[in-house]
Amino acid sequence: MAPKKKKATKEEILQKKREAERKRYAKIKNDPQKREELREKERLKYLKKKEKGTRKLVENMTPREHRDAKKKWKQHCTKYRSKKKVLANITNSFIKENTPDSDVSASCQMEVAERNNKNKEKMLRYKIKKKKDEEIKELKRKVLKYKKRLSRLKKSTNPKPTDTPNTKLQKMADNPESRKDLVKKALFGEVLKQQIEDNFSEMKTVKEKRLLTKMVTGKIVDKYKLWRMKNTGVISYKRIKKAKIGHRLERRKKISDKCVRAVVNFYEDDSNSRLGAGKKEFITRKSERKQKRYMLDSLLGLYEKFKLEKRNFTLSYQTFCKLRPFWIVMPKVDKRDTCLCINHANIDLKVSALFNAKILNYNSYQKLLQELCCDRYNEKCLSRDCQKCFNNNPFYKEFNNMRRINYKKWISEKADFIDPKSKKTRRVTKYVKKSFDVKPRDLIIELQDELETFLRHERNIVHQFSAIKKLKSMLTEEDALIHMDFSENYITKYSQEIQAFHFGGSRTQISLHTVVVYLKDTTKSYCTISTNVSHSPAAIWAHLNPIFNALPPQIKHLHFLSDGPVTQYRNKTMFYIMATKISKRFPYVQNFTWNYTESGHGKGAPDGVGATCKRTADALVATGGDVENLEKFVEAIEKRCPAISLSIIPDEAIEEMSTEIDREVTKMKTFVGTLKVHQVTGKFFNPTGIKSNSTEIVMKTLSCFCDNDYCVHFNIGKIIYEDKPKLNVEDVYTDSESDNEAGPSSAVVQPFKTGDYIVVKLLSKTNMEYRYVSIIDKIDEEDGEIRVTFLKLCDNKGQLFRYDADDVSDITMDQVVQKLSNPNIVLKGNRIFYKFDLPVDVFEKK
């Protein structure tokens, strides 16, 4: 009977299972495919546990769970390291037991070879060190040799120094034979000291005393410290110290000529000072006479601006003030300005009222601009395009709105004027300075409403000044800038006048039109005078004719600069003269620009020319001469001011020009927004170099002198004047007696075809001309019409357009301005754009 098998215990069963698992895992690990499958299975199991939340991350554990996990990790790491250590010990003991013993003789040989190598290296180091020591010793010997030679050379070349005063006296005191000489020297020193003291006490001026102190002070006196001797009053420590400081200050006063010129040019810039226009506004220093210029800001404000603009110069505020030219002066109350800008004046009055009410911390528009802008001379800041300061507003303190504020303001009023002679009533406009009593909040709201207009006004001033300054620096031999202005009329005078003449109406008025012409290398001044005191466009053109005659023949680009009164330079008559008269007067001029300064800020160089002429004529009258007519005025100026060219404009020339313009008044066109215009540009030649039959002038809100022929900066509109030639009868009708009867005309070749890109002009109800790019869809030859689809502009350069399928219209052939080359197709996402190689001159209605 076979013995019964004993039942395996629980521990034995578990042991068998573990062995089976080990074998299974070993089999899987030996098979690469099964090993990868097992890894993927384990990875998925881990992710499932992670999704269910049974396997938590550290960030999801509670503090207690985290502590328990760290304990388990620590146990696992300890167990893993102990296993590794036991395995390493077993491996080392196995290698040691199975490795045969090495031969003793071989190890001894290795030790001997190693010792020999060390000895060789030691000997080599010793030799190198010994060689270096010998070289150092030799060099030291040479240094001593050359030092000795140098000392001998110095002794032979330099003279033996003379004995110092102290050494001389010691030698004389030691030698009994020279003691008599010692007494004489002591007597000489005492006599000289007494005489200096007597002379010093008799001197009355500080300058003489300083001169004597300089004569008896120096290095030797400083060496022996003679100021310690109490028996002398001339040589003292304080006087010697002052003399030394004075020398140092003289050396520090030196400033480079380049820096001085930069400061003077900065003061004379039109954006920092304005030229006095009055004939008495001059100043003389050291026989040099200059026309006064009045600062537009305080010295401190100008100094801050100088530091920003001229960063390459480092100047203190005191030095900046000292370098101010004598003709740059601060405006005074008794020399008040009667040509103030109404915008600045009204803002100043409001800010001053708020300052007096302790609502603002400043009382001038300059400080207001400094608070609103990062840089008050930066166009981006003034246009509110700066990302740093576009939200800046004045800081208002707390105030009681029930306490009213009184402020003044310049306003225009309509008033009835009764002529004392004709007794007729006329309606006139008067400007008065009125007082208003308002609540603080109402005044603040009014100031806030005017800030945008004020900042735009200030931006225009800065831009126009900088644009003209840039133009002057870019002038070439083919460019000319003509800066003009009317000066105040001069009244004829006699050196001695009877009462009836002085208080009566017997005086003659002389109109002065002053011009400064800027060429590439020269600047010339002109003054045209006339007894006709009209300042109309016709008079302006008549006054400019002598200046045109003096221009070089190679001029191709004309630039004009003036202020912008609508009765003189900025009106539809002047626009017509620009478009039609310049090309006739200058056949080879390709283009022109007429630039206007901002309203209230038109003072410039021509005002100085006018003041010089009137002041010179008055000086002649003051010395006994008479200036009773045009000829005497010209004679007085030509002799004393040869740099100013004078010309007399006869009344007939002005009247002839007025008549000619009156005949062409129907051709003139008005422009809506004339007061916004600060530049008028025109071209007389098309891109192919052929003179155009029509002249197109472009209106701009600001001046721009970029090199782009298709400049669209600041454009606000255009005016086109077509030059239609007169037709003769022979050109229209054929001769009935001619042998060659007029036959049928040949077919006209159409210049366009379907699919061409063209520029089309459209006129609004106010005669405003707009230009659009379009594509031809259909041509109706019988009616002479073209059906087009318009393209819309998508960039600021005038090159990128998109197709607008809903914007379709029928136009005539006369409305086609230009044919364009085929554009390139540009894809942006699902959108299609058309890009032309050159900018297209378009003006779309917004």
TrEMBL record:
Domain of life: Eukaryota
Biased composition range(s): Low complexity: 158-168
Region annotation (Disordered) ranges: 151-176
Name of the protein this chain belongs to: Uncharacterized protein LOC111351351
Taxonomic lineage from the root: Eukaryota, Metazoa, Ecdysozoa, Arthropoda, Hexapoda
Gene: LOC111351351
